Amino acid sequence: MWLLYAFVSALLAGMTTILAKIGIKSTDSNLATALRTIVVLLFSWLMVFVVGSQHTIGMISTCSLIFLILSGGATGASWLCYFKALQLGNVNKVTPIDKSSTILTILLAFLFLGEIPTMWMGFGIVLLAAGTYLMIQRRESEALNVKSKSWLFYAVLSAVFAALTSILGKIGIQGIESNLGTAIRTIVVLVMSWGIVLFQKKFVLIRDIDRKSWIFIMLSGLATGLSWLCYYRALQEGKASLVVPIDKLSIVVAIAFSYIFLKEKLTKKAFAGVLLVVSGTMLLLF
């Protein structure tokens, strides 16, 4: 059953990227992240009460709570970096970098969770790395554009924190109902994101957000909430080294939607990179 949850998570994550990209087009990325998190928090706690797991809060061990908090912190950092990168760069360049966190996740799962990578995983990692490299190559016309360079820094940080999120989350949700674990993590993300917004005094920009941006920010938050619930249910039941690669197939959804709705076209080299990334991801599942 975890396989179905993982694929649904990937589909929703791909939709989240496009919805968020449209929503933050004329909105500060940190503020948009904080607003999205409110939607995710409300939805995740709604699911907690629907399944009735709120009664098990007192049964959470100190160790699990610590790892859930750390996972939430890593998630918040990953989100802030990811949506900043999305605001500065194209979806079809930012997404491959973020999804390359699969490689680091597999290494961390081997070191800390004892999940032994197979030979196929080794081949898959090589294809992932090669495909990501091809996809982030800039056209000559972009080479001198400072803005086109700055997204890379945030995208790399996003990938690092995303890998830490998966491992810390895997440890934290052991023995805990997955919806409750997700809801607790979201509280941390909310506090972290709004803390940054208040520190930067960007909350005053709320009045400048137009209706279209509001709609897409809220929709991206809802899609994120649904994706999270599916992802951490899959992570609870399956191996991190298998669940994470499936979730990263959201890159296909994100790139397809970016072509349809954002008119972001792929070069032949980038398209070859997509094929390598997908092939590498499928190999990881063996």
TrEMBL record:
Keywords: Membrane, Transmembrane, Transmembrane helix
This protein's name: DMT family permease
Domain of life: Bacteria
Family: Belongs to the EamA transporter family.
Every EamA domain range: 2-136, 150-285
TM annotation in the entry: 30-51, 63-83, 103-130, 151-171, 183-201, 213-234, 240-262
Gene Ontology, cellular component aspect: membrane
